[in-house]
């Protein structure tokens, strides 16, 4: 019997876009996921957006940024 209540993962947030988080974002975006990137560096966000590694970027965990995500990766030191 199939579990019909399974939710499909579509929107993924990554907190920290360094080596690990950036690499993860790159792979996931190539696989077709919507990726939200959160970094403390504006230049990192801008580079990730320009390279189309992330769809949305934020400098902080402002209210609501993670509310509609299906999965969150924390990639901070």
Brief summary:
With 77 residues, the chain is of the alpha/beta class. It has helices at residues 19-30, 42-50, and strands at residues 11-15, 34-38, 56-58, 71-74. It is built from two helices and four strands, in the order E-H-E-H-E-E.
Mean pLDDT: 92
Number of extended strands? 4
List low-pLDDT spans.
none
What distance separates the N and C termini? 42 Å
Strand order of the largest sheet: 3-2-1-4
Biggest beta-sheet profile: 4 strands, parallel
Secondary structure layout:
Blueprint: E1 11-15, H1 19-30, E2 34-38, H2 42-50, E3 56-58, E4 71-74
Parallel strand pairs: 1-2, 1-4, 2-3
Structural features, described:
This protein has 77 residues and is α/β, with parallel strands linked by helices. Helices cover 27% and strands 22% of the residues. The chain is built from 2 helices and 4 strands; from the N terminus they run βαβαββ. The protein has helices at residues 19-30, 42-50, and strands at 11-15, 34-38, 56-58, 71-74. A 4-stranded parallel sheet has the order 3-2-1-4, with helices on one face. The protein is globular. The model has no long low-confidence stretch (mean pLDDT 92).
